[in-house]
């Protein structure tokens, strides 16, 4: 068994391992656990061009930064493709537009690398959305005096932070009920992220003064999610 090594002059030459060194090396390789990222792999396999899919779908860096602040990111960058590693290292400006596919891939990689259950991931996104709506700038842009006003203005406000994925909303005939619909390119939004948007809409209602908020993903397809919302004032 040979290794290529460098001397003090950075000259490279083959080095023959001793029996003990060979044993240590082969044992270390054998017991090194492989990193499994099943949700990330499944997500990228569904997209037409993997990480290069849907370049027109973007999200504001402020949204991404708020989310990853609540996710366990340590060591994840070492096990993902470089575009994702750059995001995890914070190599972007505060007002940049980031690839929606890349951002989603980072979220899934963090969940997979840390073996987070779906419910645990959604709980972390709930905390992130709560903090995001408490941010003074975000609150100024997104908050409304009443939930009904928030519902009517949500589509245009969504466009401040997202491109390529559209939000439409409608108030139902029954008081304190609404329907939110997200439309997007095929398979760009996996189930885990779709569920996490329940917490974003809930945070929006609470910022508008609603109580007893209930948001549920009631319909899902490769290109559309529908959410039923109810609340009390």
């Amino acid at each position: 068994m040979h290794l290529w090594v460098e001397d003090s002059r950075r000259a490279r030459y083959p080095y023959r391992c001793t029996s003990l060194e060979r044993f240590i090396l082969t044992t270390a390789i054998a017991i090194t656990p492989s990193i499994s990222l099943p949700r990330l792999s499944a997500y990228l396999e569904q997209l037409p061009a993997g990480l290069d899919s849907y370049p027109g779908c973007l999200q504001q860096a402020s949204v991404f930064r708020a989310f990853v602040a609540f996710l366990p990111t340590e060591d994840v960058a070492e096990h993902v493709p470089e575009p994702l590693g750059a995001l995890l290292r914070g190599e972007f400006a505060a007002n940049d537009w980031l690839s929606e596919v890349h951002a989603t891939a980072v979220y899934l990689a963090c969940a997979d690398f840390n073996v987070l259950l779906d419910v645990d991931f959604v709980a972390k996104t709930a905390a992130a959305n709560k903090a995001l709506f408490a941010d003074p700038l975000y609150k100024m842009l997104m908050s409304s005096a009443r939930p009904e006003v928030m519902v009517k203005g949500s589509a245009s406000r969504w466009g401040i932070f997202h491109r390529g994925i559209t939000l439409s909303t409608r108030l139902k005939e029954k008081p304190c009920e609404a329907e939110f619909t997200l439309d997007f390119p095929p398979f760009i939004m996996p189930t885990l992220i779709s569920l996490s948007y329940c917490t974003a809409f809930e945070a929006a209602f609470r910022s508008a003064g609603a109580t007893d908020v209930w948001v549920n993903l009631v319909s899902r397809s490769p290109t559309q999610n529908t959410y039923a919302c109810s609340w009390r004032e």
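The radius of gyration is 23 Å. DSSP finds nine helices and nine strands in the chain.
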